[in-house]
Every structure is written in structure tokens, then in C-alpha cells.
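Hi everyone,

Forwarding the result from last night's run.
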Amino acid sequence: MILLADLIDRYGSDLEQRHGHHLLPGHYRALQAMRRCRNQHSRVMVLECNGCHHQAILPHSCGHRSCPHCQHHESQQWLERQKVKLLAVDYFMVTITVPAQLRGLFWANQRIAYDLLLKTAWQTINSFARRDPQLRGRSGAHAVLHTHERDLDYNPHVHLIVPAGAINMRSRQWQHRKKQEKILFWAANLSRVFRAKWFEAMRLAGLRCEETLPDAWVVHCKKVGRGEQALAYLGRYLYRGVLPEKNIIADRDAKVSFCYDDKKGKRQVRTLPGGEFLWLLLKHVLTRRFRRVRDFGLLHANAKRLIQLLQLTLHMRVPRPEPLPPRPPVLCDRCGQVMTILARMVEPSHHRLC
């Protein structure tokens, strides 16, 4: 397997020459973290077996959210927290994509634009739920921001998992469509309302786009199942790097090739100079402390009592919150017993095993 850390070592200088004037402090932090993730550059933890007292050294992960090695445990923790809020109803995935003409504006104002995209997408869903003649209530959504297409080109968009219904805040009853339909809201209508709300949000934020924007914006809405099935679907879009290392298939003649599946499910290969490949990855490093995964409406963390009421209304067994799963223990490679951590974040050159 071709390691991303090795590519950073090999093509870091090429990246500096090509795009050094575009690199931000967050890009440098991401490069440094991924370069030192679980290899000879990283700090280590020292462990000792509880049975045979064998000592071992384990390299630390970097924990950066853009690293393909990390965030799997965090993703599992998020899924466990959301299971407490599951409803016995169908869920829909709504995907809202901004036009290509807005990408320059997004890149130049990332923190503001990404925040507006998430909030405006939710405001659109919320307005439809409140005005729909069969719903007329409060809905909710799990929202995830993405900035990349399948081939890793820059393309900001947001995915929202939305329950197929709403709660009437006066009667405290769950409202749903009388007929089981394959859609929650018409995508064309969502597109028009989102476009109008986006222009208003842009105006209030003082953002201006000099390019001519199209009338039709891309919005999709499709059913993704019930309960845990919907969460598992959303889990594909959570904490992970934009490119798994297994998809990096070649490094020859100062060029890197990676594979991806297009929208028709066919395997495609893209080849770029090493520096351009690293820059393509760095385009999707989010600004520091920006929350790309958010819960809105009745799925917000502050709506726990409302969720429990809904679960009782839907004749569900109210799930009890369980302790978040701990990290799996490290087992001794000699006797198989659990190992105890003696020291963390030790420089590899500062420790010698007994």
C-alpha cells in the first residue's frame, strides 16, 4: 500500500513550489499531522502486558479529521449517540449542492459560507415541514457538510437525513403523509426555496458574487430506510479523510494515481503530479474548530425530552442512553492478554525497551 505520509515527504517541496502562496496555517498543520501518523515520525505510547510483562511501543495516531487513518472511533461514538434519538419512521436523504459559479466565493470565505450553507439548508427543510398541509409541524435533521466530488474536485454541498414527518407542537402528535410516497418534498421546489434563502443569507452576510448564477440548482431527495439503516447510510459521510489510502494505486514518474467510483459505479483513475495531488487533498481541510456535522430541530441535543415523547407516541421502547464504547484494548502479541499503558506521547528516541 502507498502511504500518504510517504507522499507528503516526497512531494512536500513540489507542493510548496506550486501552491505555497495559497497554503494556510491549517494546511501546514494537516500535513504535519498526517506525516507523523502511526509511523517512525510519530510519538509513541509505551505498554506493558499484564500477564508476561512484555513491553511494546505503539505509535500514536495523529487524530486529525482529514487523516484517512483516524476518526473511526469518533464516528462510532457519534452513531451510538444518535441511536438514542431514533424514530420508527422512514428517513430521507436531502442533498443540496451550490452552483459551480459560487465555488470561488466559498473558497475565499470558507468559515462564513460553509456555516451559511448548513443553516440555510436546514431552514429550507424546516420551512417545508411547517407549511406542508399534511405535516404542519416541527421536523429535524442530521446534516453533514462535504466539499468534494467523487474525483476530489472542490464542490461544496450538504447531506441531510430527515425523518418523514413532523410533530405538531400544539397537539404533540406525530404528523405524516397519508399516502406512503417515495419522496418527502419535491426536489425542484426545494431548489427554488433554497436559492431564494441563500441569496438573502448572502446579502445579510455581506457576500457578493460577480458571476451570473443559474436559475436551477441541484437538489436531490431520496428515501434511505428506517432507523439504524438511515444512520448507517449517513455514517458513510462522516469522520474520515476524503481519500482512503487503499485508493492510491500508483506513484511513478513524480505522478500519483488514485481510483474512485463514478456516479454510475464504474471505476475511474485520475493521475496528477505529486504536488497537485497533495493540493487536491488540502482543498478539503476545513478551518479550525468548524463543525461539519450538526443536528437541527427535534434531533438537536437540546430536544431530548421531545424525542422521548415522540418515541412513546410512536409506541417505541424508549432506548436508554448507554455508555459510549471505549477504545478497544491493546493485546499482547506474545500471550494475548491486555496491555497497560505506561507512558503516552513519548518521543521515540527518548525511550528504550527493557
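The longest strand covers residues 154-163.

Cheers,
N.
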